[in-house]
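Readers of this paper often ask what the protein records in our data store actually look like. Such a record has a labelled line for the sequence and another for the backbone structure tokens. The tokens are whole numbers drawn from a learned vocabulary of local backbone shapes. We quote a single record here, exactly as it is kept in our systems:
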Amino acid sequence: MAFFEMIFHELISFLGISQLIEVCRTGNYKVLLTLNGIFSVISPILPFLLLLEIIRAIFYKRFKIEDYKMPFFIFVANRFISRFISIAAVVFCIGVLEKYALFNTSLKWYWFIYGYVIWEFSHFIYHYFGHKVRLFWCLHSTHHAPQTMNLSVTYAHFFLEAPYADVIRTSICILMGVNPPLLFIIMFIDGFWGSFIHAGENLIKDGRLGFLNSIILTPSHHRVHHAKNPLYMDTNFCNLLNIWDKVFGTFQHEKRDMQIEYGISREMNPNNFLDVYFGELYCLWKDIRKAPGVKNKLLYIVMPPGWSHTGDHKTAKVVKQAFLQQAKDQSI
């Protein structure tokens, strides 16, 4: 009986409806007018969109269990491994760094805009290094391993990635004066949008979202980010506002004449949990072990994925340059 009760509570937690159930039980509907009440209404949207995505895939006979199996296994594993690590990391950073903030903000609309721009900058920094530093890529690659795009991919992360990401993002925001209440509101909104942009074609066929594609980052842009096509590698690092991708030259629209290929560039078994979860760490260990000298061993840890001590680099930058040169030669 205890097992089924645990499963029930996990399901309620996943669907994000525990607060709504409590509201219905107590009849205190006024709480829905508070900030927590608004969050409790928004929280179930993504899980139910995921269920809708699966139902549509089944209805149109496009459902494949392997498209959702690995993200589900990763989600279950992370629930037991890292349930509270990320929260602890955020609280620690706030406690240590808040007194060093450049200035103090408040819950005003103009500070919200400022805070969101700073948050997107901090997200860009974390995400950029997640692709450009081999060790951090080992943590982030689990999220890029799925070879299709759907809402379940938002749950596919290595258990240490969220704490590492939140330490960077929280530290930058707190030091730049984004106070904790404002930061938590921004994190909630950005977390919701950051999950939604993983919507696949079974839910939203054209992820450009009409005119929004020219204003913010849409599911189309995030599909590009998850692609292993040479042109699309290491692009669209932001979540909602594309300002920092445009500033640093990493912004890329989806091309209508280019079929997206999802996944990571190394050969792997997308249905093997150990390969998806630990594969990049194992490959890094092999490279370090065979590298001559301490300097090269350390460089494998901090240089971009694809860097080689032999000079035969296969980084995203090298691959993209080769692709663009080939396209240029063919057009002549």
About this structure: The chain has a mean pLDDT of 90. The chain has two domains: 44-247, 288-331. Residues 109-132 form the longest helix (24 residues). The chain is about 60% helix and 0% strand.
